[in-house]
Sequence to fold (213 residues):
Amino acid sequence: MAAKLERARVVDTALRLLDETGLEGLTLRRIATELDVKAPALYWHFANKQALLDEMATEMLRRMTAAAEPPGPDADWRAWLLLTCRTLRRTLLGHRDGAKVFSGTRLTDTGHAARLEEQLTAFVRGGFTVDDAVAAHFTAYAFTIGFVIEEQAVHPAPGERAPGYDPEERARAMGADHPLAAASGAGLFDDFERRFERGLAVVVAGVETVLLP
Fold:
């Protein structure tokens, strides 16, 4: 039991430091210093940084699942898709570089299986094949991950805007010869909440049009 608790402590510390340093600054050595241990001590739990990132992503998913009440037993696939994407985005935005940490990682346990089963059941009940239900789920997931990666590039933390993403400065740099490109800045770098909801609506409509028999 002590080993499991120690592993959890490492992950909690890593998630806290992530908010301070970002993904590039997060190292096993930095975590070890924060925990007041030697770096080799961490290798009892994590062979390398990728193994740690896998566990961090899994812990983020655990917290996401615990924080989001599932739709009712008769909820349709749309309700499930919207809930999953909105909750995922909120979870990823809870940490600096949260989307980068989550993207491409391998989950370290099957704790997510029950919730995934419920979601896929709602799709199949709505007329999807299992393959098309998976395609719908992955498409919405990929949209959300990609959206938040771009969102966090502009706003690494709440209230913070990274250099180079000011729409007015961008418009001036584009110049009068490219009026449409110059005007596109606000649509790329502002109002992420509205744009996410619009994009999600496009995904849902596309899923229904392309994948639902």
Observations:
- Confidence is low (pLDDT under 50) at residues 1-5.
